[in-house]
């Protein structure tokens, strides 16, 4: 049995998506697949993922059900921190089967940033779990209108590490392709997978694609001849994507100054930061941040393509060009 001090933190994936985006349908299929055999899923209500039949004969005091696939489903009304801590120690004591990852389904109306920050800043659970990625579902049929009408949906997309375009069987192939292109423009750096009534169309590792530690070659793939570039597409509510680039290695003091600038100047208006920096020690690091909280930079294994080195994608709300130009200057040591 692993000890509490030696075990590596368990990766946690947030599954988010606006009401009607197909999030629950996707999860209902995944929990019964063998790929989810070593997964614990935290949901608000079992009935939401079509598990009512599993609860027949179950005690109302037992909040965990083990499916035939080996997946654990946990229903909890407690805070996320309390639920994750409980799962961890029950696993450690052998009260429930071992699992190697946790998937948390959020409410369709929930903005994921507070949950992301809770996972990153709560020292009591950070020893045991780590935020691995945010998976956001978008409806191919009504997703464009939803993103335009609801700020929460736009924010859910802004913080995504992986986007799943659902209900692609309900629209023409060219419409699904056009929507996938729109999502790539609005969420630069987030891979887009497609799903229909039968589940994911691509045979891929959903978790590897979403993991914040994994940066696939060409993932950002943007040409940037200047120090910073504002992308053409601007969402309603002032949410927009921007790119800044650091030329050459960045020393740790300059990186700390840049993080301080982003936290103090943009703060709550900084919805997402994702990118790669070459640091003064000669290694490339994955950079992640949500609002005031920045994850510790993680060193990347393997070679990083030159057009990705030094590239940071920022998703902001109501940030002007002067603020973003100054952010680029701080990173380049010119401010």
UniProtKB/TrEMBL annotation:
Catalytic activity field: GTP + H2O = GDP + phosphate + H(+)
Pfam families recorded: cobW (PF02492), CobW_C (PF07683)
The protein, known as: GTP-binding protein
InterPro entries found in the cross-reference section: CobW-likC_sf, CobW-like_C, CobW/HypB/UreG_nucleotide-bd, P-loop_NTPase, Zinc-reg_GTPase_activator
Family: Belongs to the SIMIBI class G3E GTPase family. ZNG1 subfamily.
Function field: Zinc chaperone that directly transfers zinc cofactor to target proteins, thereby activating them. Zinc is transferred from the CXCC motif in the GTPase domain to the zinc binding site in target proteins in a process requiring GTP hydrolysis.
Presence of the UniProt keyword ATP-binding in the record: no
Annotated source species: Pigmentiphaga daeguensis
Chain ranges of the CobW C-terminal domain: 239-331
Swiss-Prot/TrEMBL keywords: Chaperone, Hydrolase, Nucleotide-binding
């Amino acid at each position: 049995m692993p000890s509490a001090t030696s075990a590596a933190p368990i990766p946690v994936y947030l599954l988010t998506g606006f009401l009607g985006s197909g999030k629950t349908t996707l999860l209902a299929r995944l929990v019964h697949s063998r790929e989810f055999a070593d997964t614990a899923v935290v949901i608000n209500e079992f009935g939401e993922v079509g598990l009512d039949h599993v609860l027949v004969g179950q005690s109302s005091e037992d909040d965990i059900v083990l499916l035939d696939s080996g997946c654990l489903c946990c229903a909890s009304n407690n805070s996320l921190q309390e639920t994750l801590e409980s799962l961890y120690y029950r696993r450690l004591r052998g009260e429930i089967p071992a699992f190697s990852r946790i998937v948390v389904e959020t409410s369709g109306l929930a903005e994921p940033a507070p949950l992301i920050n809770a996972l990153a800043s709560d020292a009591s659970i950070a020893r045991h779990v780590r935020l691995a990625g945010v998976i956001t579902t978008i409806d191919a049929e009504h997703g464009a209108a939803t993103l335009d009408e609801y700020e929460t949906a736009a924010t859910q997309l802004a913080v995504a590490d992986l986007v799943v375009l659902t209900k692609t069987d309900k629209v023409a192939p060219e419409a699904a392709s056009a929507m996938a292109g729109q999502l790539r423009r609005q969420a630069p750096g987030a891979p887009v997978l497609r799903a229909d009534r039968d589940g994911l169309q691509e045979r891929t590792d959903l978790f590897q694609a979403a993991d914040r530690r994994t940066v696939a070659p060409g993932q950002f793939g943007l040409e940037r001849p200047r120090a910073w570039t504002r992308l053409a597409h601007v969402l309603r509510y002032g949410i927009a994507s921007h790119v800044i680039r650091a030329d050459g290695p960045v020393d740790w003091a300059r990186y700390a100054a840049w993080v301080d600038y982003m936290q103090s100047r943009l703060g709550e208006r900084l919805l997402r930061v994702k990118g790669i920096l070459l640091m003064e020690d000669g290694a490339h690091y994955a950079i992640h941040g949500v609002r005031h909280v920045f994850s510790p930079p993680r060193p990347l294994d393997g070679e990083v393509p030159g057009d990705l080195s030094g590239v940071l994608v920022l998703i902001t709300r109501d940030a002007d060009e002067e603020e973003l130009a100054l952010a680029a200057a701080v990173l380049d040591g010119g401010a």
